[in-house]
Amino acid sequence: MTLRYFITPFLRPSNGPCAVFRNFSTAARRTEAASAPTSTVASTPANPTPRQRSSQVTASQLPYFVGRSPSRQLPVYTDLKSGGTRKETRIRKITGDIRALRDDLADYLKTQKVRDADCVISSINQQIVVKGHLKLQISRFLEEKGF
């Protein structure tokens, strides 16, 4: 026996269950495709919770949309300006009616008894800038809306 007989099976990956994959995503796609059901009915929970129902309804009916970052986080960022004396919070990745989002956010912050939160639209980069570090309140608002 020569060395060729031992190396040859490793050089040619097969399509069987012992196939050699170059990366995890290829293996995951093939596994998902093999185990995926063939029906085209969307998988929805039989009894969604009231919060899920309200967020699905409100998020689809709103005139604006706030996308998430590649790591699935809300695009709400805090920043310090003017040597740390001016604090601001920015909302990015907004599509649709940005004025409606600003108005809804201002109303929400008033109901949360946050001191006069100044919400300004940055028209150049389509972001909303809020005076103060209000990341938790703004994130809670966006999650309640279903984003």
UniProtKB/TrEMBL annotation:
Region labeled Disordered — which residues? 32-58
Pfam families associated with the record: Img2
**Gene Ontology process terms (BP):** translation
Which Gene Ontology MF annotations are present?
structural constituent of ribosome
Query: Where is it mainly found?
Result: mitochondrion
What spans are recorded as compositionally biased (Low complexity)?
Answer: 32-50
- InterPro entries named in the record: Ribosomal_mL49
A single cellular component GO annotation? mitochondrial large ribosomal subunit
Q: Which UniProt keywords apply?
A: Mitochondrion, Ribonucleoprotein, Ribosomal protein
UniProt keyword annotation of Zinc present? no
Q: Tell me the compartments it is located in.
A: Mitochondrion
Q: Give the family, as the similarity comment puts it.
A: Belongs to the mitochondrion-specific ribosomal protein mL49 family.
Name the PANTHER family for this protein: LARGE RIBOSOMAL SUBUNIT PROTEIN ML49, MITOCHONDRIAL 39S RIBOSOMAL PROTEIN L49
Name of the featured protein: Large ribosomal subunit protein mL49
